[in-house]
Design goal:
Radius of gyration: 20 Å
Protein name: Phosphoesterase RecJ-like protein
Largest sheet: 7 strands, parallel
Strand order of the largest sheet: 1-7-6-5-2-3-4
Distance between the termini: 11 Å
Oligomer: single chain
InterPro entries: DDH_dom (IPR001667), DHH_sf (IPR038763), DHHA1_dom (IPR003156), Oligoribo/pAp-PDE_c-di-AMP_PDE (IPR051319)
Bound molecules: guanosine-5'-monophosphate, manganese (II) ion
Number of helices: 12
Organism: Dinghuibacter silviterrae
GO molecular function: nucleic acid binding
CATH topology of the largest domain: inorganic pyrophosphatase (n-terminal core)
Amino acid sequence: RCRFYRVKPISEIYGELDKQRRKVVITMHQKPDADALGSALGLYHFLVRLGHEVTVISPTNWARFLSWMPGADRVLDFEGMQDKAMAVLQEAEWIFCLDFNILSRTKRMGPVIEGLACTKMLIDHHEEPQEAQFQYGISLPSKSSTCEMVYDFIIHSGHGDLINETIAECLYAGVMADTGSFRFPVTTAAVHRMVADLKDRGLKHWLVHEYVYDNFLENRLRFMGHVLLNRMEVFYEYNAALITIPKSDLLRFEIQTGDTEGLVNYPLSIQGIRLAGLVIDRDEERKWSFRSKGDFDTNTFARRYFSGGGHFNASGGRSTDSLAQTAALFKKALQENIEALQTEYPLSLNN
Ligand code: 5GP
Ligand code: MN
């Protein structure tokens, strides 16, 4: 499915990659996860090896468990270093936008990027991209991760020989995270071939897994226990579950960016549950995450009820209502979607 009508294919810039030294900015969605930061840093190391002057700018801070990534210490946090980031953005000739489909996902950087006159490129795997903002791009919702797309970009541009252990670590992290460690249906044969190739180039995959999943502090595991015991409701009649996290829990367990990552998947381990919602009472908004199994479309669900979107089986959204109000809306939405939620599973794969 080609989702682009007015954007030129990203392959048109392959010929420009090794011509002249360019000032390049790479950015990704706010609160970058392993796929967003991994794809940005994988592309960063690749373009640096080609001789370009590259800066990665994140719209916000990121999870502590991603700080091991090679180059993470050089990433500018737009919220924390706005003047420096603005200066780099004004100078940029190319800007790569990774792992998001709509500029508002870059928060306060959105209007800044919109105002830049440089060449803007999108590499992303979310549904329904806002194509008007980009001159070049590739949008493939069938792809496991943006890291897989950056890998394809490097290989198809003819520079696969530049992929070293550093690039392999960054790209592997995102593919591992977005495929749920290679278990979701998006884990195609091409994903496994890519991993085999990264292994050939020196990747120590177990280290990446440990960096990402065995790198939390004790408080986070205690928090998980508390939340699963006290904050999860299961609605068997809808094959769904909801986790509601009040601000007091975040304060009590000293929860930081990234500590809630993965929590939304736990209800799906209950027999029969195929839709999980997680809502967290953040300062500025109530932040939603949705995950599903099988034929329930969380992208449409998040768009319709929670001003969000994402992928078919994984999406997010937001609300300015109170925690109780937005949780009530979720329950109402379950009623309105009862047919889709009660259909027999497994029906068919989505891709
Ligand atoms: P997560 O639950 O991990 O925050 O997000 C799941 C997926 O949905 C990610 O791919 C993420 O980029 C996307 N997503 C999360 N929140 C939003 C949102 O508010 N709007 C849109 N369009 N996508 C979102
Ligand atoms: Mn992604």
